[in-house]
Amino acid sequence: MMRRPGKSSVSLVIPLYNEEDRLPGLVAELEAFRAAQPVVNEVILVDDGSSDGTAALARSLTAGRPGYSLVRFSRNFGHQVAVTAGLHLAGGDAVVILDADGQDPLDVVPTMIERWREGFDVVYGVRRSRSADSWLQRTTARGFYRFFQRFTEVRAPVDAGDFRLLSRRVVEAYRGLGEQQPYVRGLVAWLGFNQVGVEYDRPARSAGASKYAWRHRVRLAMDGLASFSGRPLRYAVRLGILTAIAAVAGLAWVVAAKWSGDTVPGWASLTFVAFFFGGVQLFFLGVVGSYVARVYEEVKGRPRWIVQERWDSDGIPREGSA
Ligand code: UDP
Ligand code: MG
Q1: Which helix (H) or strand (E) holds 129?
Q2: Per-residue pLDDT reduced to its tens digit, 215-264
Q3: Longest Cα pair distance anywhere in the chain, in angstroms?
Q4: Strands across the sheet with 122-129, in order?
Q5: 99 Cα: distance to centroid of ligand 1 (angstroms)
């Protein structure tokens, strides 16, 4: 579908997972924000299979207010998938992705819109400070963003999360990607176009607890690396070659020692060498396996999310999935 590229409407995409505690505050902030920014005429709330009353509460809080849509997944599919679904549904000339918890402050959005109007296609938020997050979280995140930069061929900006504005043509290009395990910030960087950052201070979560367990953070990091780099596989090959060379050298040494009459002592140390290389082999088998698993996910080609229901605040029920 071709659309006239205008700059007169902006959609917000907000993923929600068990955000009951946060919702009343969020909707109040959104209402105040939209009163000041009438260009924001659509808010897509994606309920990522919450097990609390998030969906019902979102409906009752937004009923009768213009421009809210709620999409409810049939179960929890994960934050990155929820954001992707939101991008598929949003109809604005630009779309802003933000977390529900106030950590991606709405008052940065007008600046993003300004930059977009100046002609940028992607305006991403750069975390100047994130004093509210724990030391461990800050340090691992900083380390990871830099590692990702060096490790992959994608020039993803450092210290930027998913909080960003995308122009219509970027959204259309993103929709064409169809990856099973999307790593949104990496994919958007991969898409190219004119990208620019705006700095902001990342505040603490407004209400409720973080919905990202550490194992999810690790998973997100692995997804990011595996979908943008084949380097772990190349490292496995190199390490294998080095080990083989070392083994040949070791063998030569053993034979030489035998000829010169010394027997090489130390079965115990030999056992540990065997253990060590057993471990290394298993590790890289695991690395290879994780790529195979990704291929398997892609090949199955299952839908990335299942919509249980859709609801619009203007009261018109809609059928089917996104
Ligand atoms: N979220 C989601 N699905 C999940 C986990 C989180 O849609 O499986 C949403 C959550 O409701 C919030 C955003 O993703 O709007 C970011 O989550 P959170 O603030 O808990 O992550 P953190 O800021 O701690 O990394
Ligand atoms: Mg958060």
Answers
A1: strand 122-129
A2: 787 878 877 788 777 777 778 778 888 888 888 888 888 788 778 877 66
A3: 93
A4: 195-201, 122-129, 160-167, 94-97, 10-16, 40-47, 68-73, 307-312
A5: 7
pLDDT per residue over 167-206, tens digit each? 999 999 999 998 888 889 889 999 989 999 998 888 877 7
Q: Which CATH number fits domain 10-215+303-318: 3.20.20.30, 3.40.50.1970, 3.60.140.10, 3.90.550.10?
A: 3.90.550.10
Considering every ligand atom shown, identify the ligand nearest to the alpha carbon of residue 162 and give its number.
1
**Domain definitions of the chain by residue range:** 10-215+303-318, 231-299
Pocket mutation for ligand 1, best pick of 13, 17, 26 (most atoms within 8 Å of C-beta):
17
pTM: 0.79
Question: Which tokens in the block code for residue 126?
Answer: 């750069």
Q: Give distance in angstroms: CA of 155 to centre of ligand 2.
A: 24
**Which atom of ligand 1 is the closest one to the Cα of 78?**
8
pLDDT tens per residue across span 113-127: 999 999 999 999 988
- Closest C-alpha residue for ligand 1 atom 16: 99
Ligand nearest to the CA of 100: 1
Q: How far is the CA of 209 from the centre of ligand 1 (A)?
A: 9
Q: Which residue has better confidence, 116 or 276?
A: 116
Token pair in block for residue 314: 């203007």
